[in-house]
Amino acid sequence: MSTFETLQARGFVQQSTEGARALLDGPATTFYVGFDPTGDSLHAGHLLPVMVMAHLQRAGHQPIAVVGGGTGMVGDPSGKEESRQLLTAEGVAHNKRCLKSQLARFIDFGPGKGQLVDNADWLLGLNYIDFLRDIGKHFSVNTMLSKASVKLRLEKGLSFLEFNYQLLQAFDYLELNRRLGCKLQVGGDDQWGNIVAGIDLIRRVESRESHGLTIPLLTTATGAKMGKTVAGAVWLDAEKMSVFDYYQYWINVDDRDVGRFLKLYTFLPLEEIARLEALQGADIRAAKAVLAFEATAIAHGKEATELAQAGAVAAFGGGQNVESMPTFNAKLPIPVVRLLVESGLCDSNSDARRQIKGGAIKIAGEKVMDAQAELTAGHLDTEGAVVLSRGKKKKLRVLGS
């Protein structure tokens, strides 16, 4: 199976230029994906283009990860109904460092391998008048207004700052083509208009051919946006979301999503995925366990994943290794409502009281029915700990002091 066919078979291809297939199925080529540092962590919804980068690098192509220290100061309006909050230079710099560290888990940035670049290197020093004369003259306002991302925002208001984003991203592609011989841009399908603008700019300025490929904007079988949960985003940063909870996210996906997610979020061979995808009934749990282990190991490493797996077995499978469960240190006595909020099992005091009233909260397997209840030293086992749970899927080992 060719490189392009592999991407198609795994569900990574939404749109592509006519020559993208031949480019990827031919000799090694340089391609790029952009990441604006609007936050200090990627989440599971960001991972599709990252996985494409990893697959293409394994096929011999050379990835460029562009961390947008320049475009991050503007904010991409694509796919957004409201303006992004503008970041300070210090905020962009902090987020950029965090994203670089996370991308390195997926991409080999060793000598002669992948490259990490910052578009601030060429954007922040631009002379505005020169930029308008040299680059702006190649853009038609009518064409820019026809883009879907712009149309969506015109109804609610689009700042001139954001309107310029398409020029800046197109200029990124032009600069990468000039500096590093980049011939392909990969991005989410909401980026198609920006990608085409870059391709057209390279053709006009350099008289060279370049290409683009977009990835589907993914939702789960329930219609939820990929990488989002009721509690918030599925972060890659272990400080924002523990490895245990990351593992639990994947093992609790909808049965209908298991095969699709195995193709997108793991490197397992398609033949093995087909076998797992064919499992039915209770056997689908085995496929979910494989998905959870493989997806978590890619993001957090095998050792941390094995600990998360052991914690899951202890919490939900009757295992004895409860030390592997996520833990929370509490000064006793403590009101259960407060403990639920401070430990992250509940979002607020009112949420905690609702969960108690509904019978969802247990201490050492016993339901807590009184919203005024406290956790005391009497609840602790001989090791000074007790398991606190919310429903069937959220458990925590509380260490008392």
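^ that was protein a. below is b, sequence first then the tokens
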Amino acid sequence: MGRRQRYVDALCRELELRSSYINERVRTIYIGGGTPSQLTPEQLTQLFCTLGTAEEVTLECNPDDVTPAFAELLARLGVNRVSMGAQTFNDDRLHFLRRRHCASQVPVAVNVLRQAGIRNVSVDLMYGFPNETMDEWMRDIDAVLALDVEHLSAYALQYEEGTPLYRMLERGEVSEVDEELSRQMYYALKDRLEAAGYEHYEISNFARPGYRSRHNSSYWHQIPYLGLGAAAHSFDGRNRQWNVADIDQYIEGVEQGSPVVEYEELTPDNHYNEVVMTALRTCEGLSLDGLQSTYRDYCLRQAQPFLQNKLLVFDGKQLRLSREGLFVSDMVMTELMCV
């Protein structure tokens, strides 16, 4: 049996082993991480037969994997939302990212999904490439707006330690985009999408009204969830656990009926920090009424400098990042957390 098939079998077996992890009806399913669109039709069918159905079922895919047969299979299996990694509409930058697809395949893939009856499509974009100009970024925004998709996620290019991109940075082969240009790119994205009718409902996410990602919103609102697969995280409302990242070790553990996991029991401080980190990412912000008085008082004290310099706004109940605060959100949230 091939390794890929063993992995699919392990996913299905893990669900059986952990079916009682959360005592709630499953409302959303998200299949991502890696490239699930590379699975065979038989493997996808096996996986969905085990998972069952939900109100929102999302599958991540690459644009070049979307064929009419693949899109029709997804629709038959109950997938009603597709998240597609376009990243950029510049072929040179796609090559720089080592992506397999070319820019012209993205609108074709969206049309194929529409023809199969999938009416909820999300596209990922990336900005802040080495030497990228504002004009080039605006062309990417115009290209994604022309697709008229229901959802868009956009992220600044990150140089993560240990990656080929980080090593290129260390060798001086590339340089990070200027911070002020990155800020202006973010504001340009926000302004153009809001003018086109999208809600900026989370720091990096925009949606047509009624098309916010319900699955990802559960993370930001502390709703319990079950994660299956290597390195997958789960949360039961009180504790977190995560599977071993090594695929072979993950498969062997599940095959033996004992998944290899690590646990973290959330202390009150841990829980407060997570609420700050997730709630402030959203347009609703952080409800101070939902915090214990000790944490509420602490949060307000820590927030004072940011209220004064207008990085945060407070209406008496909700604490939110301002337009200026969104770009420096990590710094603001860190200062509100318990050390």
